[in-house]
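Practice problem: predict the structure.
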Amino acid sequence: MPQRSAFEVEAHSDRVIARRLTTAYVFGLLLIGLLTAGVHGLLDHIVAQQRDAATIINVAGRQRMLSQRIALLSGALAEGDESARAPLHLAILQMERGLDALVNGGDLGISRPLSPALHDYFFVGPNALEPAVRAYLQDSKTFLDTGAPGLLVRIRLAARQDLILALDHSVALFETEANRQVDQLRLMQTGLLTILLVALLLEATFIFRPLVSKIGQTTTRLLDLATHDGLTGFLNHRFFIETAGRILEAGQTAPLPSPISVLMLDLDHFKRVNDGFGHATGDLVLARVARAIRDTLRASDVCARMGGEEFAILLPATDADSAVTVAEKLRAAIAADRSGPGPIITVSIGVSGLGGPSDSLDHMLDRADRALYRAKSAGRDCVRLACTVDPRCTGTPACECTPSGEGPPEVAPASLTLLR
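Answer:
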């Protein structure tokens, strides 16, 4: 089985981590969703409980009022007021219906029957409320039919003493039970809310934070891959043009414009390295040259691998003469580097300074490239400066000449492709 490269191992590890984080993220969202639904359901249940409790307390309170109304109407009927008969009959029916709703539920907006504690109060013991209310209602019905004076005495006595006290106590029991149930539900709500907040904190700490960090790392890596050369770590061609263009424009529009120079650097006979030592060694040589360039230049200098074995360097705040000095240091440092495998490498360098306020990066790179070809034709392992002022020049920034009359005559770039 072939051994996987470090890049493949790293990519596989990233995919595993991404899958785990995604799974944890989905699980966390489901957990938060369930907890949120639980809190919502509990709140809805609390509202329903409070509404039901309010209805029960209202019906229980009406039982007290109806018991007094029955007693008053019974007295009026006993005194011969026949107009009290119909209201008395209605009050009896209303009180009976209220009792049935309180005991069994399912009517008058009451959805549930009595709790065990209230059931005992209504049905258990010699003073149970339900039989007392039934007896009171039965006496009221019989009195309505017969008008017996003895029944009126019992009705009035119950309404003033035993029954009214028992009905008052039932209202208090209903209120106490409703408050206890609501307190329990609110305690559950607080517990669920606490669990939800803890879950959010844990998810933010152990899921969202690593996920955001991983996304940030991946974004940084993708941006680096899109803007830098993977072998040397220098800018790639496209991003160098953008970056150098911005620096040149900023320098030209500054109140005190500063000089800027560019270098075009090409490894000599690099094809022989690839053919003789292999492309792997060629890559190591390129990395070695990049390291020598990085060690020689300033942090403010902008380096790029333009393609193959060709590099471009932007030197801010550097005039042409100083750029030649920098180029000579680079050439010497690369030629003296013995830090890695492969043969001794030399480089040819073309230098171009800023030709004027209206000069452009394309013209500077073009002049530096022509100077590079002249360095190749001069025997390689040397530096050549592109000039913009010479009796033979047309005055345009793209005009080239050989400084101080040295070097061979101009050779068209198209004919120099084999010199590299």
